Structures are given as C-alpha cells and as structure tokens.
Amino acid sequence: MRRDHRKKPSGVGIKGIGAYVPEAFLTNSDLERMVDTSDQWITERTGIKKRHKANPEQATSDLAREAALKAIADAGIKPTDLDIIIVGTATPDMFFPSTACLVQKEIGATKAAAFDISAACSGFLYGLSIAEDFVRAGKYENILVVGAETLTRILDWSDRTTCVLFGDGAGAAVVGRVGDGHGIISTFLGSDGSMGDLLKLPAGGSRMPATEETVRKRLHYVKMEGNKLFKAAVKAMVNAATKVLDDSGYRSQDLDLLVTHQANIRIIDATAKRIDISDEKVYRNVHEYGNTSAASIPIALAEAKQKGMLRDGMLVELVAFGGGLTWASVLMVW
Ligand code: UT7
Predict the structure, then answer these.
(1) Is the CB of 230 under 6 A from ligand 1?
(2) CATH of range 12-180; options 3.40.47.10, 3.60.15.10, 3.30.200.20, 3.40.50.2000
C-alpha cells in the first residue's frame, strides 16, 4: 500500500466569508481627467479598470463592519460568539483605539478581545495564520479576521505613479473548527525590513510627527518605488507559494484555486507562470477593485465563493505580498 506523505488539514479553517466595497468608484477615464495618465497605460501596466472609493463619512472600520457582519452570517454564528477580532490594515481610522476595537463595538461582539496587525497587503494572511494557531491551541473557538482599507485617503491625487493603483474595500473571515479533512494545511510568513523604503507613508508617526512642513511636502501620502517593488513582489510571491506546497508534500498542479494579492495583473500572471499553474485556476479581480491591500484576498475569496469557483473540498492556496516588506502564504482545503 502506498503511504500518502502529504500533510493533512488541521481541521481549523474559514467557517464564513464576507466582503464589502463602497458603491462609488473611479474609472480610468475619471483619472485621465485628474492626472497625466491614460486608460491604455493603466490597463496595460496594471490590468486595473476601476477602483472603489469610500464616501466621505466612511472610515476603515465602517467598511470592516459590513464585511464582518456578512462573514458572521455566512458562518452561522452571532457577534457574541466571537472570541477575538483581528484587523489587518495600513489605513486604520486613527492611531488608537485600534480599528479592531471599533469593529468590536460596532458589531456588538461583547465577548471578543480585539487588536490590529500592521503587515500592509499581507495583513489578512498574517491574521489568518495567527487565528489558526489560536484556535488550534484550544483556548478560542471563533476568531474574526478582517482585511480592510481606505487607501484613497492616503493617496496623493497629484501623483500618477500611485493614485491610479489603489482602491477601498474590506473582506472578513470567521476562523474556527471546520471538521476533519478540511481547513488549513500549512502557513508561511516572511518579511524583509531592509526594503521597507520601497513602499511607505513617511510622516505622521513618531519618526516624523505631523507639522505644517510635512503637510506642505506631501509626506502624509503613499510613496512607492513601483519598479523595484514589482521585482521583489514576484520573487517573494513565488517563494512563498512554493514554500507551503513543498512543506506539505503538494505540487502546484494539485491546486484547484490560487488566490493571490491583487496588486497588478502582471505580478499575478508572472507568479502563476513561474509556479506553473494553469490559467483557469488563478483568480483575478484587480481590474474591478485595483489594489485594496489587506482587503484584496478576502474580497477575492468571497467573490469566488459567490461565483461558485470556491467549493467544498477544493485545495486552495492564498499568497500575499506587501509593504514592510512582508509576504505570506496559506494552503488549505476549503
Ligand atoms: O501591494 C503591494 C505593493 N505594490 C506593488 O506590488 C506594486 C508593484 N509595482 C507595479 O505594479 C508597477 O511597477 C507599476 C504599475 C507601479 C508601474 O509599472 P512599471 O511598468 O514598473 O512602470 P515604471 O514605474 O517603470 O514607469 C514607466 C513609465 C515612467 O515614465 P518614463 O520614466 O519611462 O518616462 C513613468 O513615469 O511610466 C510612467 N508612468 C505613468 N504613465 C502614465 C508611471 N505612472 C504612470 C501613469 N500613467 N499612471
């Protein structure tokens, strides 16, 4: 009899998923009227066609709340069943209280402890990995993991190299026991702080507190070295994707669905090509939302599920990359 050397799922995984994006959006032609750019450049270089934008009264916790309520309903639990709330975000409502605490109040999760994690676009997968370990340790049953962003609030709308790329949105998952044969098989987290300058928001923290000068110099906006980041992104995503597969005894051809961070269609395509996975198994929605940072993977998962592309028993891989630099991957049976 042939022994199966492949690692088994932990029985802890995603019980419910939900997403929310604000109604308003900007098309590439809208941006053509704001900066020196073109629909052709944006489409060819990034794949993005539109990006959603929060209303002036909406902050990150408002988007997170909507996604959270959908995930909780999808899991068939009540907000009071939650033990922990983890929010991954680079655009919190404010320094403190944490966005997770604001969500805890908004949804009435009175039993839950709450905290944010700062891992930029990898925030949701960092949160998913933490949540899996918490549940596996036996102390907690239901953990809400949210990726939520209002990146349009920290974009310099006169900088064409960044303002065309990002959008607002939120996605959430309830992590808990999902039964034998299901759930997370392996997770991998990584970082390289030496390349942190490639993507940052320089001012407003303790290094460079807000002053009239920092505002005048536009230092409260996203600064990015896109080209260097692009190369680092492909390398890190390929390594992260390969790592959890190798660790678990699987090959990329075994995957039913690959959901990567949606930053740029060329990064997604290059990653998929290098790990050698067939095209129809790769989820892409960057054209619709732009780069929503920590929200991109849970939005994609919720959408894939709704479209019937994410079904019971599927082998799914999630891969993220972001500022920090940070990267992460998760292999699971849905
Ligand atoms: O979420 C994780 C973090 N983010 C990422 O992973 C993003 C990674 N980087 C990228 O996606 C790509 O590098 C970009 C989409 C940002 C840029 O694409 P690129 O092919 O790397 O272009 P580039 O930065 O090398 O710029 C090429 C040219 C430049 O003009 P010159 O110097 O060749 O004359 C830019 O000034 O394109 C110009 N350019 C634009 N032109 C029209 C830059 N932005 C725009 C624009 N419209 N919006």
Answers:
(1) yes
(2) 3.40.47.10
pLDDT at 11 over 90: yes
- Enclosing H/E stretch for 46: helix 39-46
- How confident is the prediction for the chain on average, in pLDDT? 97
**First and final C-alpha spacing in the chain:** 27
Residue with tokens 């009540």: 78
For residue 299, give the H/E element and its range.
helix 296-306
324 is written with which tokens? 């920090």
Given a cut of 80, whether residue 4 has pLDDT beyond it is: no
CB 265 within 8 A of CB 165: no
Residue 12 contacts residue 175 (beta carbons within 8 Å) = yes
Calculate the dihedral angle through the C-alpha atoms of 96, 99, 101, 106, rounding to the nearest 10 degrees: 130
pLDDT at position 289: 98
Q: pTM score, two decimals?
A: 0.97
DSSP code string of 178-211: --TT-EEEEEEEEE-GGGGGGEE--SSSSSS---
pLDDT of residue 5: 84
Distances from the Cα of 213 to the Cα of 207, 210, 221, angstroms: 14, 8, 13
Beta strands 257-260 and 113-117 are unpaired
Query: Rounded to whole angstroms, how far apart are CA atoms 263 and 203?
Result: 24
Please tell us whether the domain made up of 184-333 is placed in CATH 3.40.366.10: no
Residue 226 near ligand 1, beta carbon < 6 Å: yes
228 Cα: distance to centroid of ligand 1 (angstroms):
10
Residue ranges per domain, the chain?
Answer: 12-180, 184-333
Q: How far apart are CA 140 and CA 132, in angstroms?
A: 10
CA–centroid distance, residue 28 to ligand 1 (Å): 15
Q: Report the residue among 164, 230, 266, 326 best suited for mutation to probe ligand 1: largest number of ligand atoms under 8 A from its CB.
A: 230
